[in-house]
Amino acid sequence: MTVTASASEARPPVQLWLAIWALALAAVLVLFLLQDSLPWAVNYPASAIVPVAEWVSALMRWIKSNLSWLTRSITAVLGVPLDFALNLLAKSFKIGHGANAYVLPRLSWIGVCAAAFIAGHAAGGRKLGLLVGGCFLYIALFGQWTSAMLTLALISIAVPFCIVTGLFAGIWAWRKPWAERLIVSPALDLMQTIPTFAYLIPMLLLFGNSPVSAMIATAIFATPPMVRATMLGLSRVPSEIDDFSEMAGCTARQKLWRVLLPSARPTLMVGVNQVIMLALNMVIIASMIGAGGLGYDVLLALRALKVGEAMEAGLAIVALAIALDRLSQAIAHKQAKGNVHQEASPSFWRRYPNLTLAIGILAVTTLIGLFVPAFAAVPKAITFTTAPLWKAAVNWVTINFFDTIEAFRVALILNVLNPVRAFCEGFPWLGAVFLLGLAGYQLSGLRLAALVAGLTAFCAVTGLWEKTMATVYLCGISAFIACLIGIPIGLMAARSDRFEKIVTPVIDTLQVLPSFCFIIPVVMLFRVGDVTAMIATIAFAVVPAIRYTNHGIRQVSPALIEAAKVSGCTPRQTFFRVQLPLALPEIMLGVNQTILMALAMIIICAMVGTRDLGQEVFIALSKADSGRGIVAGLAIAFIGIVADRLFNAWTAKARARLG
Question: Where exactly are the transmembrane stretches of this chain (predicted)?
Fold first, then answer.
């Protein structure tokens, strides 16, 4: 307490900080005005660029030439379960060669739909069963079955790998605080802020254009939530349970596997849910390096500007995402309630009646498929398409509202986007490093200042400053507008239960939509460019602003609200003077998450013509230039880490101030 008090007393007072910031801003303005005399302080000199990209490329070439035996071994090992899942769900098993080959069919689509219904019914009742089974039936009737099963096969192999890896990494980090602080947390920060495209480049170089590459990239991208959930779940186990297990004579291993992990199961299941959703999102993007499936269908349709086909594949992704999300959430909820305990029974089918029924239906329908083709593959006669309707709808909107849409697009570009972009790209790199370092020092001291300044300087010394500021401009505008929309909606939801019931299903749906699906409708109306990227990013990133604001207002202690009422505060005064200030740290966490989600989406929007770091990664992917892509990916990650650390420091300071 004494050290903290002396440290806080040593910090400059508020008035002095205002003077320091005024001087700092004046110094940056002088730098900008003297850019002819001091060009190196505004635009980083090309002669001083550090060739990090070339070093990374050389390292990747060395790994490829000297460790090819290792990558081939990994591909062979991982290819076995992946090929089995692909054959089981999407293709078929070929036994033998040539004319004597015998083909075993894939699982019947009717059986899979029935099994999905049974799983939903077992986890959450008839309503959830109808929803999950209906989503799979929708995919079949719209002719997307094979593509959806390719995607599901990849997820079914990647997700268990992510869960097991994340569980053991989380246990290790929980047991070894030094490892969590020095290794695990920095690694998780990088893994969660590096853009998805950047994962594809080294996988493509090392493992080739194949489903195995896509699966490895997916597994790396989707593991962090399980690690964090494991650490959080174990740290939240009550100390009484820990003490009781020791009193009962449990060894350390028994205590972990029989007491602590079962107690943390609800939190672990939330991590499983997040792993499934991230894996689905990444599998869609990994279609670019051989994953195939629904993501590849969307990609082809977008490239050919086939509006209807892109929408149908996108809606199939949505159906699969909703089914997997609701099912995993229901299982997590049931685990939390402890309803999954089964009585001991010698027979398998008595202990697991739903699983036995699902396996039986799958086996019977697949065997029938050997003789009845309608069971093996979805008959074309019962499928239908809405592609012409989507195309006609877009054509109608374009014809009738083209002038309005174009006027809005041009006005936004000329009056908002271009001026902000010019300001950001012309901002002195040295000034940005200095100001961000100063902010870090004010919020948390020298360590944060050095981290923030160093990560910002990396973007300049690698020759990516202009692209970095283009990313900051588009991400900043999108996140700002998303907060302008999301925070008021969250405030209204917090003050009205009826409004919250309307908003919650909407934001839940937005949260399960893969990022690809936000681009499709916007690019139809606004064509490619920054406006399309901005609108898609706002739609993708608005959810945390709404959710955290609503949660922050509602979690204010009822005792404080009652005390305000007793003191004579009106409802408006109670809201603005008690609830809002106390919820401000939570709201700022929502702003932080909004910025990170906007940054992730901006990179994907490189597909629709943005000119920023995302485009660098996209070009590097097309050229298999690992150094260029990885360095651009690191620059994007560092933008996210800088924003995250500064907002977290501000939030911690606000929480401490509010007690």
Answer: 16-34, 69-90, 102-122, 128-145, 152-174, 194-222, 268-290, 310-327, 355-378, 420-441, 448-465, 471-494, 506-525, 587-609, 629-647
